[in-house]
Structures are given as structure tokens and as C-alpha cells.
Amino acid sequence: xPMIHHSYDYMLxxxxxxxxxxxxxxxxRLMAGIQDVHDKAQRWKRLIxxxxxxxxxxxxxxxxxxxxxxxxxxxxDYDPILTALSALVAVVACLIGLSLTSRGDHSRLNxxxxxxxxxxxxxxxxxxxxxxxxxxxxxVYNGAITSLSILIAVVASVAALWMAYKRSSALQSMFGxxxxxxxxxxxxxxxxxxxxxxxxxxxxxxxxxxxxSLYLGLMVFGVIVTMLVGVLIAAxxxxxxxxxxx
Length: 246
Known about the structure:
By secondary structure, the protein is mainly alpha-helical.
């Protein structure tokens, strides 16, 4: 069966990185100083909000925009239920990782354990998102590259958790967010490099994209960025997480 050649819309690739950086920065500022929050209810509110921000904003939105950046000469749609479930998996994985390290135990073993749970969850989100693709083709994976993408997800998660609980200034958080965004994108595009798309049926059954990828990507980007900026502004007003130094 013939392989389907694909390329990327680099405008959408750039947007996927930007949204991942902004989501990472927002999450890092939300988590800064959380070890000083002694009220359990307030701590869990912060943890859940940070998990939503990083799971949906930094990871899932990056993944979805990155998927829209994929250009293939076949009709591509996405299963809405599986796509939504992949976002939920990302949020739950982030909540598990953040909660395991929020109690003050930042030992290497605990960071590695929490990062492994979180990384596997992030990788599961990615491959669930891939499985949500509906097209006249089947996806075949290179085992070695797939394993590498999962390893990148785990390493990135461990680094993210370490940075999340490190007392840092807003400038340091921005540097960390740039690194985290690069790691999240690295995991995603490594996972994409592991995939080969094999056409099912006759080549003349292939059609154009059934969705306007750039338009949808811009919509997702706009919604997520608006949400993240809103969270940052609310945090700034509360004067709790955006102080330059803690």
C-alpha cells in the first residue's frame, strides 16, 4: 500500500510552541510558592487550576494545533469524544504529578515517580489524539522513535515538576517556560516522526482536508491564549503568584 507523504504548516507549528510556552509560564507562576499555602482547600484549588492550565493550555492545545499543522493530501477529521478524552487524560496526568510533589517531598525519587506518571499520561494523550484522526489511511509506528517520544515526555515532566516547585522570579519562570515549551513540542514532533500513514483503498479516494486547518488552529490558539491571559491577570490582581520574587 502506498505511503502518504506529509508536510507541516510552519505558521501553525510556531503557534503550537507559543501556546505551550504561555501555558507553561502560567502554570509555573501558579505553582510558585504553593508550598507556603497551608490551607488544604486553597492548595487543591491552585493545583487543579494549574493542572488545567498546563494540561489543556501547554500540552493539549499545543498537540491539537500541531496536529492541524500536519498537511496531507487526504480528508482528515477528528473524533470529538476521543479528542476530548485525550485532553482529560492530560489534565489528570498533570494533577497526579503536581499533587505528588506538592507536599514538599522534592527528592529525586519522588520527582522521578511523579514525572513518570505525568510523562506517561502526556504520551497517552498524544497517541489518543493520533487515534482520534479519521482518514482513509492507517497509522504505522516506528517502535524506537515512539519509545524515544515517551522518554522525552517523562524527562520533560520531571523537569517541569522540578521547575514548578523551585522558588523563582517571573524572569526565571519565563526561561523555564521556554524550555518546557521546547520539550513539549519535542515530544509531540518526535511522536509525529514515529508515524507513517498508509493509504487504505485506491489513491483516487484521497481528497482535500475537510476542515480549514489554519482557521481552526487560529480559533483554538485565540481561545486558549485568552484563557491563559485571563488567569495571569486574575493572579496579578490577587498579588499572590506574580510577585517578582518570593
